[in-house]
């Protein structure tokens, strides 16, 4: 149920960026939520439906990228895909692995509506 | 996460950071952690702890795993060695803070209402009621919950996760995010193992190892003094290392930094 806290943090970031770009609305919010982030996309989507009401993102869609869990073995150097609770090397079975992806919890990009400025350049 | 700059782009997910632009819209690449605001508050707390040379341990577990009993036993055992303070997190009641205060140690209770975890801002507010001068060791007893507290950095130096033997030995496999966050896993209530036939400590350790971590796992029984020794040894070792690191940090930090002067990386900042 901490998804609502995460959602509020997300909307605060979106509001800041939308204001900085003089946007009149937010169309899409694209987030990366990995299986090891501690956040469930379905619950975050549900929280977003409530939290977006009355905000600059009231009409926005929340889109999820879900990076797979991948590890690199510190012993043999192999990269492999694995389950969230079994982060072992698929090649040698070693447990000394480093996570390459799967714990992301980040705002990737947002699509803003900008009145009468279809070709306005991207901010640096 | 990138270990160099702390960004969230790695070789495994860099393809997600592609740039796109619509015809009548502006697409802004952000790549910012969703909990960036909490992480900033946690960094502020950590800097505050380091300024006062306080070593901070975030205790997490299911409800009833024995966090408060462990704190009571720890306070009794280390009474003559260091000054301890406690921040307690619960949905309601001052019960746990009262138990700690009864041992003669300052404690601040955070009641979260319906919130399932502590966050850095709540801890920051609690610190206003808890003078750090003279404190060596601060425990933050998080809300009993194996899910949500794992996602929120509080500014602690170490995460300790308790797993009591009255729970299942497959808890690390069921709650990988929490057990991956642990710097130490404490198997608690091990004096009950003799009457429990369904908890196998080796299975719990195997489930922990399957998370790709060499995290130390120790056995304790807070109600029996000799069985507390591995925990006290770990605490003394970590506290000693933190003191050394704090001294070195202060030695290489110039006296009152001028405006815009960059300070060295704070002691204990993870990732």
| Biggest pleated-sheet summary of chain B | 7 strands, parallel
Strands of the widest sheet of chain B, in order across it, are 4-3-5-2-6-7-8
Indicate the structural class of chain B.
Answer: alpha/beta
The total of beta strands of chain A comes to 6
Low-confidence stretches of chain B: 1-7, 18-22, 257-266
Q: What would you call the shape of chain A?
A: elongated
For the CA atoms, what is the radius of gyration of chain B? 20 Å
By DSSP (H or I, 4+ residues per run), the number of helices of chain B equals 8
> What is the string of helix and strand elements of chain A?
HEHEEEEE
- In this structure, how is the largest beta sheet of chain A organized? 3 strands, mixed
User: pLDDT average of chain A, as an integer?
Assistant: 91
The whole-number mean of residue pLDDT values of chain B reads 87
The CATH homology group name of chain B: P-loop containing nucleotide triphosphate hydrolases
- Tally the beta strands of chain B: 8
Q: Structural class of the secondary structure composition of chain A? A: alpha+beta
The oligomeric state is: heterodimer
CATH level 1 name of chain B: Alpha Beta
Q: Helicity level of chain B, as a percent range?
A: 25-40%
Order of helices and strands of chain B: EHEHEHEHEEHHEHEH
Written description of the protein model:
The complex is a heterodimer of chains A (124) and B (271). In chain A, helix 1 (3-20) crosses helix 2 (41-51). Residues 119-124 of chain A have low confidence and may be disordered. Chain A is built from two helices and six strands. In chain A, strand 3 and strand 4 (79-81) form a beta hairpin. By secondary structure, chain A is α+β, with helices and mostly antiparallel strands. With 271 residues, chain B is α/β, with parallel strands linked by helices. Chain B has a single domain (20-252), classed as P-loop containing nucleotide triphosphate hydrolases (Rossmann fold, 3-Layer(aba) Sandwich). Chain B is 31% helix and 17% strand. Chain B has eight helices and eight strands. Chain B has helices at residues 36-51, 67-78, 95-101, 120-127, 171-174, 176-180, 201-209, 229-252; strands spanning 25-33, 55-60, 84-90, 107-111, 137-141, 158-164, 184-188, 217-219. Chain B has a seven-stranded parallel β-sheet, with helices on both faces. In chain B, strand 7 (184-188), helix 7 and strand 8 form a beta-alpha-beta unit. The longest helix of chain B has 24 residues, at 229-252. The N and C termini of chain B lie close together (8 Å). Residues 1-7, 18-22 and 257-266 of chain B have low confidence and may be disordered. Chains A and B meet through helix 1, strand 1, strand 5 and strand 6 of A and strand 1, helix 1, helix 5 and helix 6 of B. Strand 6 of chain A pairs antiparallel with strand 1 (25-33) of chain B.
